[in-house]
Write a structure and sequence with these properties.
The chain is globular. Helix 3 links the parallel strand 6 and strand 7. The strands form three sheets. A six-stranded mixed β-sheet has the order 3-4-12-9-10-11, sandwiched between helices. Strands 7-6-5-8 form a four-stranded parallel β-sheet. About 45% of the residues are buried. Helix 1 crosses helix 6, helix 2 packs parallel to helix 3 and helix 7 crosses helix 8. The protein starts with a strand and ends with a helix. About 40% of the residues lie in helices and about 15% in strands.
Length: about 350
């Protein structure tokens, strides 16, 4: 753990891309396991397996760890003394960044988006906030309106300038760790997956996952394309809309050197973006939470309410609506973590428990 591989061995199929200059810091417990998943009401002619990136480490856990391995290697190589990142009040990414930064001896400064009614109050210790504050992360809150008006990039830049004036040298990590460098974590995922095919008696026809900030989707889509796996990638968006994800992921791909001219494909060729945000980002409907509860009761796998829960709910809706499209498919669902976010839904969940 915490070994810094200063020279990253790029998979052969990714040789046309520029290798991450500063290597990779080993933070996660990889490879994460794969097992078959007997989901309720799954048609008998559809096989579903689950890739447990929620088990990438107890305090870290989730897909953000893979990105942070590359991002924090750059921070260490360039001798930054701290990290700034930004997200929602229950951001899994911010929690993972707080822990990983502390592992590597870097202070962490978080900008968390909250409601106007709550932004001037102590954020408390619910869910991800408990871990962030236990490891000593500094928390600043902004309203959703300010976040929209100013933008995440500018908010981080402003905090960086403020910290520089006090003698700090902070490294900025974008929302979700989703940029060209961070997305290398999910190119590495594809290489890992290729070595686990025997666990599922052969390759997968489809990969299904949640899509929030885009880096995981961009990395997996590009990796499957370059490695010629023949796997279709389905990205269930939990915010924004499909056009946004195609456009933003293309920016990430271009930053990786994976332009259409180099790899012979655009973002729209690499994955299919599907709307799954329901009532809105991090807003859970009773139906979504009831489904998450049912999956936990029948399979023992606990999803999160913001990402994987919404993605699987919509995927199963799609299967029920058009079963022939999924007949004889071998599907891998990527669990991207986020269990701590369930603590923010206790009031809604308690009503479901009482009703059962």
């Amino acid at each position: 753990m915490f070994e810094w591989e200063k020279k990253y061995e790029t998979p052969d199929w990714a040789a046309k891309l520029a290798t991450p200059e500063h290597g990779r810091v080993r933070l996660g417990l990889f490879p994460t396991p794969i097992h078959k998943w007997a989901l309720p009401r799954l048609p008998p002619n559809v096989e579903v397996y689950i890739k447990r990136d929620d088990l990438s480490g107890m305090q870290l856990s989730g897909n953000k760890v893979r990105k942070l391995e590359f991002l924090l290697a750059e921070a260490k190589a360039k001798e930054y003394d701290s990290v700034i990142t930004i997200g929602g009040i229950q951001s899994n990414h911010c929690r993972a960044t707080s822990v990983a930064s502390r592992y590597l001896g870097l202070d962490c400064f978080l900008i968390l988006r909250n409601s106007r009614a709550a932004v001037d109050s102590d954020p408390g210790l619910v869910g991800n906030l408990l871990v962030e504050r236990l490891v000593g992360a500094s928390v600043e809150q902004v309203t959703k309106e300010e976040y929209t008006r100013v933008g995440s990039v500018e908010l981080c830049r402003q905090l960086q300038e403020k910290l520089k004036k006090s003698g700090r040298n902070p490294y900025i990590i974008p929302v979700g760790g989703s940029n060209a460098l961070g997305s290398w974590g999910y190119l590495q995922f594809v290489e890992e997956l290729s070595k686990q095919a025997d666990q599922a008696s052969g390759p997968f026809t489809d990969i299904v996952m949640a899509c929030g900030s885009g880096g995981t989707t961009a990395g997996i889509g590009l990796g499957c394309h370059l490695a010629k796996t023949g796997t279709k990638v389905h990205a269930y968006g939990v915010c924004d809309d499909p056009k946004y994800f195609y456009d933003y992921c293309q920016e990430i791909l271009d930053g990786m050197g994976a332009t259409a001219e180099v790899v012979g494909a655009t973002s729209r060729d690499l994955f299919t973006a599907i709307q799954a945000k329901g009532s809105g980002y991090a807003i859970s409907t009773e139906e979504e939470l009831a489904f998450v509860k049912e999956v936990a009761e029948t399979t023992g796998v606990i999803l999160d309410p913001v990402y994987s829960g919404k993605a699987l709910y919509q995927f199963m809706q799609d299967v029920a609506r058009e079963p022939s499209a999924w007949a004889n498919k071998k599907v891998l669902f990527l669990h991207t973590g986020g269990l701590l976010g369930m603590y923010d839904k206790t009031d809604q969940l308690l009503k479901l428990m009482d009703a059962s």
